[in-house]
Amino acid sequence: MGYRLALRTFVGFYPIIPMNFIQWMGLVGALLLLMGLSSAYIHRLPISTSTIYLATGLLISSVGFDLIDVNFVEWAVWFEHLTEIAVIVSLFISGLKLRLPLKNPAWTAAYRLAAPVMLACIAGVAWYAHFVFGFDWASAFLLGAVLAPTDPVLASTVSVNHASDHDRMRYGLSGEAGFNDGAAFPFVIFALMWMEYGELGGWVGGWALHYLIWAIPAGLLLGYFLGKGIGRLAIWLRNRHGDRGGASDFLALALIALSYAGAETIFAWGFLAAFAAGLGFRRAEIKVVNENPAIEYENNNKSNKSNDSDLAVEINKVGESQVVAEHESIAHPPAEEFVGRKLDKEELKQPSKAAGIVVAEIISFGDTAERLLEAMLVVLVGISLALYWDGRAVLLAFTLFIVIRPLAMLLFLIKTPTGKVQRLMIGWFGIRGIGSLYYLSYSLNHGLTDKIDDTVGITLSIVALSILIHGISSQPILNYYERLISSEQTKSNTR
């Protein structure tokens, strides 16, 4: 208790009175002001913004200034809905940023990450929890499933952020975060049903038929075609009327809500539908751009190809003709170049520019929403950690981050269009975050009755450790990766 007394003495008052709404508003404003004014300095530091939010939560929790306590179990209903909103918004925006066709080799790693690699991580964590922590198999499997999804909200540093970014590592991580946040859900349900029935039996067949064979493809197809259809309609209307003040933020929210609710209504996976809706909307934009390229972008393919960080490496591997053919199959849409811009009516009469401005406005809105949701939820994680920190998570985190995921990566990404260094980096950047919080709170509200404190404590601790470790290491490792890519390009150009 001495450190708490010291903290209270330092700020000049004792005891601390619980904060009211106005004081909380002031604290939030101060935090946002700090992040807004210091962003340039933060980007130079080997930490992420999530690390600062986590530290803020700890600072105002019972281990710091003791301003507030957040009991995750008691707040489980709120956490479920808050994280649900954060995940579906982030999944939609993640899908919107991925512009290559689904058959493109860049997607190969994402498919394997969302299936065999995820299953290997679930199995590895379950084995560890059973034999080291003494969990029964159902509880151990649930912990593995809860910790399976990588995070689209917290992984922005290592994800695709521009239309011309074809980097295999970034594409793999972005695609993985989009797919496995939904693909992990069947296995959370499996663990909860296992707990309910007490043993494996005939119910497994029904589970597979409903939650795998139906719910996964149904969610993906519904979301994709809904996104593509609404995307074509929205672009056509913007182009036809030359509307300079279109409510693209409302359009994004409507599509997210309709895809998610529609999928849940037909008993499919809403997370996958939200992600696929983003993919479908982007395909609508690309189709318009390919059919009606803006004059100033018609000759962009050649110049853009030289900016692709994987191009030089690919040419060495498979030959120039194959790589050039792959990259020429997609025209670079101008969407990201329109972020923050206003076009006049004459420009909006060009379909490609109308398409670009719609997508650009949605991406801008989505990025802002993601940052706000990230700040709120990570601060809450920091506050909750004061009650639920579990030291056993340190060794499990080491095992998951250093052993289980990297080994699965090296095994299952063999013969994919990724280099060894890229596979190792993908193995390291398996960031755990908001998706795990959602599955944890969902489990608490839908049948988790055994090992509650253990499961909550270990999950929150793993998420916090991931925010800290990956946040500190991401920029130095990415700097090394960029230097390596630059070196490969230089070697290729001198040949």
TrEMBL record:
Residues 31-287, 364-479 form the Cation/H+ exchanger transmembrane domain. The chain crosses the membrane at residues 12-33, 45-65, 77-98, 110-131, 137-156, 177-195, 207-226, 246-261, 372-389, 395-414, 426-444, 456-481. GO terms for biological process: proton transmembrane transport. It is a multi-pass membrane protein. The keyword Transmembrane helix applies. The keyword Transport applies. InterPro entries: Cation/H_exchanger_TM, Na+/solute_symporter_sf. Pfam families: Na_H_Exchanger. It is found in: Cell membrane. Keywords: Antiport, Cell membrane, Ion transport, Membrane, Transmembrane, Transmembrane helix, Transport. GO terms for cellular component: plasma membrane. One of its GO terms (molecular function) is antiporter activity. PANTHER family: CNH1P, NA(+)/H(+) ANTIPORTER 1. This is Sodium/proton antiporter, CPA1 family. It comes from Nitrosomonas ureae. The lineage of its organism: Bacteria, Pseudomonadati, Pseudomonadota, Betaproteobacteria, Nitrosomonadales.
